[in-house]
Amino acid sequence: MTEELAYERFRKLRWPDTEGAPVCPACGSHEHWTLVENRKWKCQRKDCRIQFTVTSRTIFSSRKMAYRDLLAAIALTVNGVLGTAAGRMIREMGFAYKTAFVLAHKLREAMSIDYDQQLEGVVEIDGAFIGNRRHRLPNRRVDDDEAFEAWKKKNPKVTTSIVAIRERTHDDPERRPKVRMFHVPKEGDGVPIARRIVKRGTVMHADEGTQWGPLEMYFDTKRIDHSKSYSDGIACTNGVESVFSRLRCGERGVYRYFTKAYAERYGWEMAWREEYRRVDNGSQVDILIGSALRSRTSRMAGYWQRHKPANDLFDPIAA
Ligand SMILES: [Zn+2]
């Protein structure tokens, strides 16, 4: 694909309502002057008059790379079913490490853009430990719960949790079931999150863990005792388990391990991959670019200049 075609694709995804004709990001005006240099426009509204490009006031606002490279990097990202390591981006795209790292995290932010939407229908919730190389357990078996519990007791401060909340398939096949992940200090912190993002009156499925008890005050809650079975015809959390399976595979096979500081971002990524798994690659690229162009300026902007971790700066629900 040529640079010109890639650029046109970005324009159409930024301004779908006008089929790519520029709209001022500050005032929404359609009147503008075209500036010759560098694909820029200037707003004609008297009290505005800002200059803007197709990426102004989006996650890509300080973009320096060619649109074609950006497009190729996004295609590479969506094609990694379990994630795409920064190292792979460096080799295949010829990027510097910092470029690959920042771009990957910006795309993860874009993947969380719809986190203010409400979940409904039938919804499953569960939690999993993250952030500390679970594959380094004494006997290296991740499914040995007893060993893991013993290890956790010895290392109480090193584990945190990822909570996954997932809609079951809707009756209407056109509706894509939403998948969400959040990084929390302990699983029980998933309850207030569920109260924020799951519609009242929704049927929720959770396992027998005591941390999910409070859900019963707010939702019609079905519980499944995993020591007896995984599905008893009444309750079942296999949907969220498969999200965790993807997370674990990515953790062991692609990213090696998720640092605590970025655990939430990997969660957004894996939730997004699960949610869009049946969407073809080309559409995934367009959806991700569209989300990135709807995202306000990234928390990762100037990351390497600031020398500060981006951890905890970004709350997708509050955003
Ligand atoms: Zn304007």
Describe the structure.
With 319 residues, this protein is α/β, with parallel strands linked by helices. The protein has 2 domains: 3-113 and 295-306, no CATH class; 122-258. It contains 10 helices and 8 strands. The protein has helices at 3-14, 67-79, 86-93, 97-111, 145-154, 190-197, 238-253, 263-275, 281-294, 303-306, and strands at 32-35, 40-43, 51-52, 122-130, 160-167, 179-184, 203-207, 220-224. The chain has a 5-stranded mixed sheet with strand order 6-5-4-7-8, with helices on both faces. The protein is globular. The two termini are 34 Å apart. The relative contact order is 0.15. Zinc ion (ZN) is lined by residues 24, 26-27, 29, 43, 45, 48, 50.
Per DSSP, what share of the residues sits in E-state strands of 2 or more residues?
5-15%
* Whole-number total of structural domains: 2
N-to-C span:
34 Å
Gyration radius, rounded? 22 Å
Strand order of the largest sheet: 6-5-4-7-8
Q: With helices defined by DSSP (H or I, 4 residues minimum), what is the helix count?
A: 10
Query: What is the N-to-C succession of helices and strands?
Result: HEEEHHHEHEEHEEHHHH
Which class do the helix and strand fractions yield? alpha/beta
